[in-house]
């Protein structure tokens, strides 16, 4: 990742859970998108993007999330995005909460994906 964004993934409850800390912005969005898509291409599991520790999300970061959502939709993969108050507010501001399957916590994400 970059200096402004750190993260990784783990397999939990049959899902790939990506967790990130820092800023998802113009400086980190390309590496973020490439990293997530590379892992998704190597796995068939559902995906959770855990963004509760993201301090800042700008339009470039939103664009990366939209591209990942399209990637998941094209590959018929279930996914959801978990966010903190700041992330949720930014996503709702541009009315992407339904498209990104936004939920407030990991428990809600696992419930949504298992339904």
Classify the beta-strand content into a percent band: 25-35%
Tally of helical runs: 4
Q: What's the CATH first level? A: Alpha Beta
Count structural domains: 1
CATH architect. name: 2-Layer Sandwich
Shape: globular
Q: Please give the number of β-strands.
A: 5
Helix content: 40-55%
- The CATH superfamily label reads STAS domain
Biggest sheet features: 5 strands, mixed
Instruction: Using the coordinates shown, work out and report the CATH topology.
Output: Transcription Regulator spoIIAA
Give the radius of gyration.
Answer: 13 Å
Class by alpha and beta content: alpha/beta
Average pLDDT, rounded to a whole number, is: 94
Tag the structure with descriptive keywords.
Transcription Regulator spoIIAA, 115 residues, five-stranded mixed sheet, alpha/beta, 5 strands
Description:
The chain has a five-stranded mixed beta sheet with strand order 1-2-3-4-5, with helices on both faces. The protein has one domain (5-114): 2-Layer Sandwich (Transcription Regulator spoIIAA), CATH 3.30.750. It has helices at 29-41, 59-74, 85-93, 106-114, and strands at residues 5-12, 15-24, 46-57, 79-83, 102-103. With 115 residues, it is α/β, with parallel strands linked by helices.
Topology:
Layout: E1 5-12, E2 15-24, H1 29-41, E3 46-57, H2 59-74, E4 79-83, H3 85-93, E5 102-103, H4 106-114
Parallel strand pairs: 2-3, 3-4, 4-5
Antiparallel strand pairs: 1-2
Helix pairs in contact: 1-2
Brief rundown of the structure:
The chain is of the alpha/beta class. It contains 4 helices and 5 strands; from the N terminus they run E-E-H-E-H-E-H-E-H.
């Amino acid at each position: 990742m970059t200096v402004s964004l750190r993260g990784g993934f783990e397999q939990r409850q049959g899902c790939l859970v990506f967790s990130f800390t820092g800023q998802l912005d113009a400086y980190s969005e390309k590496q973020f998108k490439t990293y997530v898509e590379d892992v998704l291409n190597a796995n068939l599991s559902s995906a959770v993007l855990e963004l509760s520790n993201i301090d800042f999300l700008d339009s470039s970061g939103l664009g990366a999330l939209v591209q990942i959502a399209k990637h998941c939709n094209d590959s018929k993969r279930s996914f959801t995005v978990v966010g903190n108050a700041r992330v949720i507010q930014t996503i709702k501001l541009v009315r992407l909460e339904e498209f990104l399957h936004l939920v407030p916590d990991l428990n809600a994400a696992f419930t949504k994906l298992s339904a």
